[in-house]
Amino acid sequence: MIELKHAIQQHNLFKSALLISRCYKSDLDIAQSISQMEQLINQAAKFVGNVGDKFAAFERLRTFFYQQLAFSGDSKNYFAARYNLLDEVLQYRTGIPVTLAIVFCQLGNALGLKMQGVNFPGHFLVRFQVSDSKIVFIDPLNGECLNWQQLEKNYFSILGEQAEKEMPLETLEPTGCEETILRLLQNLKASFINEQKYHNALSTIDLLLSLCPDDPFEIRDRGFLLHQLDCPKVAAADYEYFVERCPKDPSTELLRAQIQKLREKIVIHH
Prior knowledge:
By secondary structure, the chain is of the alpha+beta class. It contains 12 helices and 4 strands.
């Protein structure tokens, strides 16, 4: 965990994501994955060549990444936990938006292109700063360039009536290393829960809480997992923590009922 925090402080997103993978694979050779990435950078540099125009170089890189290397998402099993693990994304060239964005940006920045992730609602994006006056946004799943109308449509399809009348410009600002790692961990947690790998999901929440201590929503989710693992006492305590701090949340009434049932279960066990 100390190594992960240090990598985040150093803004080393690629290494931070690999360190997350190692939390679930103790024998993972991070140096080997870094070497694999360096080989891809060398291949990309040869493919792109000495193109003077930044946008032309970016277009060449896009062709290399999505056509030559065939990085993509998996439409049939989109939420699989393995697509959150950067070593596997490198190995099999399949991922989710955030992990594909990490690899794509690592390549682009190594070639001198200013590329960053964007923590966009519902779907992580890549932002390429062509010049002071021109920015291009890319869907990292397939490399498609998105215009303003497409971005707005995607924004309002996720937030709906909760959204402002116009999409805030801040929504398209670059995302820092820690925020990207938090997004990756939240995706990973959801994937493990979906696959009913509750112990792995608990480990993911521990990582999230080490970065954001006392986050009531992570503690609520930990309570859910402990509930599934038949640990009623600690599950009830986590639910109570959430209810006390977020009394107006829509899930609060349901959680109060769950707390009552868990207390009854604790009494019976005693």
